[in-house]
Every structure is written in C-alpha cells, then in structure tokens.
Amino acid sequence: MDLTSTAMEIFRFFELTLPYIFLGFLIANLIKVSKYFRLLGLPMAGITRAAKLPPLCASSLSMFLFNSWSAMGMMADHFKEKAVEDRQVLVMILVANLPKSINSIVFFLAPVSLSVFGLWAGGALISIEFGLCLAIGLAGIIIGRFLLGPGTGATGSGPVPADQPAASQDGKSRLLLCVRNTMKEFLKTSLVMVPTGAIIIVLLDLGVQDASLSFLTPVLHRVGLPASSLIVFGASLVSQVAAISSTGTIAAKEGLAVIDCLLIFVLSRSIHRGIGSFRTGLPTNVAFFGKSLGTKVTLVDFASTQLGMMAAFLILIMLR
Fold first, then answer.
1. What is the CA radius of gyration of the chain?
2. What is the pLDDT of residues 121-132, one digit of tens each?
3. pLDDT by residue (tens digit) across 266-314?
4. What is the DSSP string of 282-306?
5. Roughly what angle, to the nearest 10 degrees, separates helices 97-104 and 68-80?
6. Is the Cβ–Cβ distance between 236 and 242 less than 8 Å?
7. What number of CA atoms fall less than 13 Å from residue 44's CA on the CB side?
8. Domain extents in the chain
9. What's the CA gap between 131 and 282, in Å, rounded?
10. Running DSSP on this structure, what letter comes out for residue 67?
11. 279 CB-near residues (< 8 Å, 6+ apart)
C-alpha cells in the first residue's frame, strides 16, 4: 500500500463528499422552515401512505428526486428528533430506491448509456436499473405494511425541535438559525465520518478491492464473458460512467452481443454499488444515524442491492 496515494485518495474522497453533505444539510434546513415544506411531500405522499410511514417521511422521499444528501440529512433530522423509529428509517431506505432511480436515470444513466450503446442496448440498461430499483422499492412498501403495522407513526409529524424557527421570525433570523443548525449538524457528522471513512479507505487499499475482482475471474469463465471484462470491473471501482464507457469499447472490440453487455453492466454495477456501500455509505450512515442504526442502514442497502443484482444476472443468463 502506497501511503501517499492512500492519503491523496482520502483527501479526494472528503473533498468530493463533505461539501455536498454541508449543502445537503443547508438545503434540508431551509426547506424545513419554508412555507412550502408540506408541498414538497406531495410527489411521494401516496407511496408514504402505502408503506405506512409517517407523513413527514414524504418530504424526505421527495428530496431523493433531487439530492440524496439533502434527503439523508432530512431523514437524520427526523430520527434525531425522535419523529421516526429505527424500523421506519430502514423501510425508508428501501422505499427511497424509487425516487433515487428517477434521479439516477434522468441525470446520469440515460445520457451516458444511450450515447455509448444507442437506443436499444442503452434502453435495456436503463430498464434493468429501473426494474431493480422498482423491485427494491416495492419490497420496502410491502415490508412496511407488514413490519410497521396499522397506525405506526401515521398520525403525528413528530415533535417540533426547540431550535426550530418560529413562524413569527423574520427571514433574516430564520436564515441565520438555519445556518447555525447546519453548521452544528455538519460538524457532528464530520467528526464521525472523517475517521470512519479514512479507516475504510485504508482497508480497501490493503487488498479488499483486488480480492473482489479476483473472485469474478471464475464467474467470467463459466458464463463465457471475455477476460477483458475485468477492465470494466476495475473501472467500476472508480466511476460507473467509466465502467459503461469501457463496456462500450470492449463490446466493439470483442463483438459482444447485447445480452453480454447487459451481463457485464450488472456485474460492474454490483461491484460499484457494493464497494460504495462501505466506502461512502457506511461512514455517512454512521455519522447520520449513529453506529447501530447506521450499520443496519448500510447492510440493508447492500443486501437489497446485491440480491437484486443477483436476480437480474440470473434472469439474463436464462434469457441468453
């Protein structure tokens, strides 16, 4: 392990994540004191009711359509204010795949996949991503209906925190209080996230990533995918955009069928989401929700995604 490169990787990680977390907290606090806060939850109100989540969860779920950091910040605030329980947070994490998929497809996957693979193959990639997120989200709704039970947090919107700006305060006072709350939440989150994230990056650099790639070599051999697919999987550790672009290059050079490209995409997406669950997700979730619930949130997100990817992979193998 090169200590210099590891230190630079840690610096780049926090350079990319911490500003967005701060911005997410700020947006979440501004929205919470806005007179339009109730309207924000309208897009996800029906889904929230279907999952038997408290009404205030609709606003957090709607924020996933625009900014995941703001949505997670809202969820963390609700949890810290004891407006939602552990089980409700876990159900929300599953249901959130529905709005997150729309954001991911519109702003990332559709432009990249359609430009690299064209309408047919690119559309198939988009369908896989949306179908996977839809299945996880529906599973979350079903689990919520059974796990939360009738009336669990269904009537209240949670206690009003003591530092919540009053309606009578002028705009400047409300803004200053929002900034102060944002700074307090950001500092508390950073104190947990920075050491946790650094430790995880060091562990990954010690060989966990290489082990995950070497595990895929026999899988590629059994399903008849070229060894050059490992280039895609290596790229997926860095960026899904790089992985999709690499898949397009390999498909052109190896003459791969569309379904082979889809198999490579599913495997690379599984690696990207799996490593991301622990590299970014674990330190962030622990910082937001505490060690116990943060770990559970990470494991639920990891398990649901990997099971979905496994199901998609098996379906593609049967259709091959």
1. 21
2. 889 999 999 999
3. 988 888 888 888 888 888 899 889 889 999 999 999 999 999 999 999 9
4. HHHHHHHH-HHHHHHHHHHHHHHHH
5. 160
6. yes
7. 32
8. 3-319
9. 25
10. -
11. 13, 197, 200, 201, 204
